[in-house]
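step 3/5: co-fold with adenosine-5'-triphosphate
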Amino acid sequence: ERAFPRATLGCPVLDDLLHGGLPCGSITEIVGESGVGKTQLCLQACLSVQLPRERGGLEGSSVYIYTEGDPPVKRLCELVERRVRRQLSHGSLPPLDNVLIDCDIASPKDLWVCINQLPNVIKGSSMRMPVRLVMIDSVANVFRDVSDRPTVTELKERTSMMFRAAAVLKELADRHNLAVLVVNQVADTMQGVNEELQSSGRGVLPSLGLAWSNCVNTRIFASRTGQGLDASRKLQILFSPHLPPAACEYQIRPEGVVG
Ligand code: ATP
Ligand code: MG
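step 4/5: write tokens
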């Protein structure tokens, strides 16, 4: 485990589930329906990765690729105010200066270009802390918006692009010993299939299908039952080379995701 440091998620319960946090050197995916808190987790991760090592952080900055429109900067600022300002006051730059947000992604091609620029972005980053976390929120969104009924050729191109994109991300994770977190949605039309897969213990089939599944090292499934403050939320490890299947409950509060 020492060769693959972990980046704390800023919550002991979530960190326990992941044996210390997001693993460097591999691709972790979080899958779940809209509103479960995938974006909240990303925001929290890009702040907690900045924490000093004695607090479980990597003293690193992050690149946050946001494909769903206006990035949640306001919420990020709120999280800084509510949870990390004091924790990070060890002479470092303001937390927001250590998060590079790229949100100009409208098509699979844009995402492909963006991912291919990552090696140079990471090398040439003007952020003072080295980049130790790369997040894409989300991949499903980009591919879904192309067309509802892709042709066979389009599907083949997409699959090939996904494989190549995953290879670039994995190479970056290895080279810079950084954590990659990719957000994906569960395909609504797949709900029946998912229930079957879950009850058989094989996991869920996210929007991008099985081809993408093979590109991911660790998959975490986020789910919610109930609404509002009564909602009960669960994170579940579906597969991972270094973690046993396990689950924990979590809540979303103004100060962030808590166990
Ligand atoms: P999508 O797939 O649509 O992007 P998501 O999984 O990214 O969804 P999030 O945006 O991370 O979902 O989570 C939204 C939920 O987070 C809201 O439903 C709300 O319950 C909770 N939330 C967001 N901001 C706050 C806040 N300031 N205080 C408390 N809860 C909040
Ligand atoms: Mg989101």
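step 5/5: annotate
The longest strand covers residues 218-225.
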